[in-house]
Amino acid sequence: MKTIKDVASLAGVSVATVSRALNKSGYVSEKSRLKVETAIKELDFYPNEVARSLYQKKSKLIGFLLPDISNPFFPLVAKGIEDKMNQMGYNLILGNVQESSDKENEYIRTFSQNNVAGVLSAVEGGFRNMKGMPFVMLDRVASNKEYSVYSDDYQGGSLAAQAVVERNPGEVIVMVGPRDISKSLVRSAGSIKVLEENNINYHLFETESFQFESAEKAAVHLLEKFPKANSIIASNDIHALAVMREAIRKGIKIPEELQIVGYDDNPYSKLMYPSLSTIAQPAYQIGYKGAEILCARIEGKPIKEKNVQLPVTLEIRESLRKKDKDE
Ligand code: RIB
After folding, report:
1. Cβ atoms of residues 154 and 186 within 8 Å
2. Same domain, 119 and 260
């Protein structure tokens, strides 16, 4: 691997001049800069990132703490982050916390030891121990005190309930996401408000997690507990797909006997047959916008909006019945 000394020797300048040119710090004449660039190209030289980060005490790395990498929602957020960060010359380190506080602390330590320039976290409460690193909270944002980007859960819960109410709702089940994640309660509150305004009876069905592992068991339990359910407002698409599978296995017709609306619009939802109606979250934009704010924080640039709430939309597909008036 070529070193900075090789570049200096070929360019006919000092190592200090090459270092200033690489780190864009201090004066370098146009003539010297051109000679350095030519030498870098000829030697196919690239700076040693660890050495550079030790020199600058900040790497070009960004940490992203996420709760569950197997849930398709989070890779979409990561893609938005990566696209923006790559534009700004940063690279991403993923910290898949898998909802374990020990892993969360371990990744925060790793980020700090690697001199990351900043951290994005979709882990609820993740802001508590950022060890002084600049950060932005994404998606699972418990309070508006911190820099954050998230989508409108109350609107999402309301849209899901409205979609069911307009389609001969019958017996309605509202799946409540894990109560230790504040957005679960905001979504359910949005649904409950619409159901009660329309005098629709409903039952709440608690779920312990958003993850695949618990969704299949929850689906079996839900259809055993509510065998006559006609409408289900699911806590996320993974649960909605698990309920659809269990209903089809039991010979229940979707949407004629049981209609279902999910939450997230993960890429698999439109591939299911029947395709899953759902609340689409702007996952990519949450990541991209969060990365934009974090870059501004790192570079000390002004930030117009500290807390950004993005709208959600209802994606109507085959798992919802036709609207009453359409019949
Ligand atoms: O499906 C996973 C859920 O957790 C999503 O609704 C997303 O908002 C995340 O917080």
Report:
1. yes
2. no
Specify the 3-state DSSP secondary structure of 276.
coil
Quote the CA–CA distance of 291 and 289 in Å, as a whole number: 5
Please give the pLDDT value at position 252: 98
Shortest CA distance to 254 belongs to which of 291, 208, 285, 223?
Answer: 223
Which amino acid, 53? S
Domain that holds residue 119: 61-151+283-310
Give me the helix-helix angle, 15-23 and 30-43, nearest 10°: 90
pLDDT tens profile 56-77: 666 899 999 999 999 999 999 9
| 122 C-alpha to ligand 1 centroid (Å) | 9
Distance of CA 256 to the CA centre of its chain: 33
pLDDT digits (tens, 9 = 90+) for 151-184: 999 999 999 999 999 999 999 999 999 999 999 9
If asked whether residues 147 and 287 sit together in one domain, one would say: yes
What's the domain count of the chain? 3
Residue 92 contacts residue 62 (beta carbons within 8 Å): yes
- From the CA of 282, how far away is ligand 1's center (Å)? 11
Nearest CA to ligand 1 atom 8: 139
Q: How much distance in Å is there from the Cα of 73 to the middle of ligand 1?
A: 7
The dihedral region occupied by 301, where left means phi > 0, alpha psi between -120 and 50, and beta the remainder, is: beta
